[in-house]
Amino acid sequence: MTLNKNVKLFLTIASIMMALAIALGAFGAHALKSIVEETYLKTYNTGVAYHFYNTLGLFAASFIMYLKPNSKKAVIASWLIFIGMIVFSFSLYFLVILNMPILGAITPIGGTLLIIAWILLALAIYKD
């Protein structure tokens, strides 16, 4: 099986993001548990959950790119998933770690990018 450069790139990104999700989840469960309030821990765990879900989705998007190697929509959707996941999850991570609630103001930007990405990927599957 030969993988094109986009498939290889996003499988690599997804693999690194999964390792990071596991590490950040463990950090939250062990290191943060004793030093932040329960409300902040829930916020952090929301970031971890979306990080995991969208990393799995990035693996799925990579598979779609493999099946539809000429789909520009699938490539754009994959970038939006990656960027949206970074903005959404990392804004929550930093909000908790740095105790900066103002960072919660950018979290919806990441969520919006994720919604757009998943709709675009659906269009790539259906139309391309």
Percentage of β-strand residues: under 5%
- Quantity of strands, as a count: 0
- Radius of gyration equals 16 Å
Structural class by SSE content: mainly alpha
Unreliable stretches, pLDDT < 50, 5 or more residues? none
Helix/strand order, N-terminal first:
HHHH
The overall pLDDT average reads 96
How many distinct helices?
A: 4
What proportion of the residues is helical, as a percent range?
over 70%
What's the end-to-end separation, in Å? 22 Å
Outline type:
elongated
Largest sheet: none
Number of domains: 1
Could you characterize the architecture of this molecule?
- The protein has helices spanning 5-32, 38-67, 72-97, 107-127.
- It has 128 residues and is mostly helical.
- It has one domain (5-127).
- The model has no long low-confidence stretch (mean pLDDT 96).
Task: Produce the secondary structure layout.
Elements: H1 5-32, H2 38-67, H3 72-97, H4 107-127
Helix pairs in contact: 1-2, 1-3, 2-3, 3-4
Compact overview of the structure:
The chain is mainly α.
Keywords:
single chain, 128 residues, mainly alpha, 4 helices, 82% helix
